[in-house]
Amino acid sequence: SAGHTRPLGELRRSDGDAFGGKSANLGELLSAGIPVPTGFAVAASAFRGFVAETGLEGAIASAMARASSGAVEDGAAASKAIGEA
Question: 70 or 30: whose pLDDT is higher?
Fold first, then answer.
């Protein structure tokens, strides 16, 4: 969908919320003429759209609820369950 990707060279610090801080910082470096490999960033909205389209919200919520204990092994199990879903 339009708006889910942008070239790094077009990103600025203000794009950090939508495209992540690292991508926004790389865009700032490129605009300053600092040699950074060119590339593109994928917006967080793309991930949210993917989760909604595939119906993964329930699987993620369930795994996160099981990990709410804060125990490392519960977090690892939740991560594995989400990855497998």
Answer: 30
